[in-house]
Automatic annotation (TrEMBL):
Gene this protein is translated from: LOC103678096
Record bears the keyword Glycoprotein: no
Species whose genome carries this gene: Ursus maritimus
InterPro entries: GPCR_Rhodpsn, GPCR_Rhodpsn_7TM, Olfact_rcpt, OR51/52/56-like
Name this protein carries in UniProt: Olfactory receptor
Recorded topology in the membrane: Multi-pass membrane protein
Length: 320
């Protein structure tokens, strides 16, 4: 995008509109946003607390799950409070620096969560294909290196976006029809040539999220091959059951994003507010439902949650 009309004025303050076209419904829309955020906060906080305090759950799979829950907390906190401020108080004004900070944490957390899902697929691959070597392969040292790699990959790839955005002159419209800031959504208001931003954003998407999806797919192809070579049906069921939660979370995380991309590419007659609602679903659904999925599907976590909740209820009952 190249614009020759440089006015010399660069906007340093922007205004997020929320969901344009549905301003009259903002108060009603805020209800599912608020409920989803509360569930995400409580569910993921409880999950992290249980996984950190129970020694029996200090296994690689649960460590990665703890990382996923932490990423969900950050992702939802980066987006939902801002949206609620717009819905409730019409407080959509945001400075350029704060906007860039928000999109930085949104993108880094999204890539981190994608990396964690890839590592969890690798964990299931080792557990099913090499069960006797599971503990010797996934050592604490390797888990630590994997965690650092996920962190460095996400922050290292998104950090240059700060400079790519700071070099731009925002002399066009400063009204952003969205509930949060994102890279290209902000860059398109610049008067400069933003082809570098577009190509960098596309390259990062391909080298991180898309690559993760491909590797996860390969992992599960290998897992299925190993499962179908098992002699008994009970072994089939047990192996697939250990992957059930992870598959649900993968579909929940990547599914809305893929659907959003398809609607933006082919759904030109779809109203803008539908695109914005779908983008928010990508941020709301995984943090809210991930702890519920793992709490229901994973027996060890389910037992610990029941134990914690009922123990607190009993202690309160005896005090009264």
């Amino acid at each position: 995008m190249t614009t020759l009309n440089h006015t010399g004025v660069s906007h340093t303050v922007f205004r997020l509109l929320g969901i344009p076209g549905l301003e009259d419904q903002h108060m009603w829309i805020s209800i599912p946003f608020f409920i989803s955020y509360v569930i995400a906060l409580l569910g993921n906080s409880l999950l992290i607390c249980i996984l950190l305090t129970k020694r029996s759950l200090h296994e690689p799979m649960y460590i990665f799950l703890c990382m996923l829950a932490a990423a969900d907390l950050v992702l939802s906190t980066c987006t939902v409070p801002q949206a609620l401020a717009i819905f409730w108080f019409r407080a959509g004004e945001i400075s350029l620096d704060r906007c860039i900070t928000q999109l930085f944490f949104i993108h880094t957390t999204f890539i981190s969560e994608s990396g964690v899902l890839l590592v969890m697929a690798f964990d299931r691959f080792i557990a099913i294909c090499y069960p006797l070597r599971y503990t010797t392969i996934l050592t604490r040292a390797l888990i630590g290196k994997i965690s650092v790699t996920i962190f460095l990959r996400s922050y290292g790839t998104i950090f240059p976006m700060i400079f790519l955005l700071k070099r731009l002159t925002f002399c066009q419209n400063n009204i952003i029809p969205h509930t949060y800031c994102e890279h290209i959504g902000l860059a398109k208001y610049a008067c400069n040539d933003i082809r570098v931003n577009i190509w960098y954003g596309f390259s990062i998407l391909m080298l991180t999220v898309v690559l993760d999806v491909v590797l996860i797919f390969v992992s599960y192809v290998l897992i299925l091959c190993a499962v179908f070579h098992m002699p008994s049906r009970d072994a089939h069921h047990k192996a697939l059951n250990t992957c059930g939660s992870h598959i649900c979370v993968i579909v929940l995380f990547y599914g809305p994003g893929i659907f959003t991309i398809l609607t933006q590419r082919f759904g030109r007659h779809i109203p803008p507010h539908t695109h914005i609602l779908l983008a928010n679903v990508c941020m709301l659904a995984p943090p809210m439902l991930n702890p519920v999925i793992y709490g229901i599907q994973t027996k060890q976590i389910r037992e610990q949650v029941v134990h914690v909740l009922f123990t607190k209820q009993k202690s309160l009952w005896f005090k009264n």
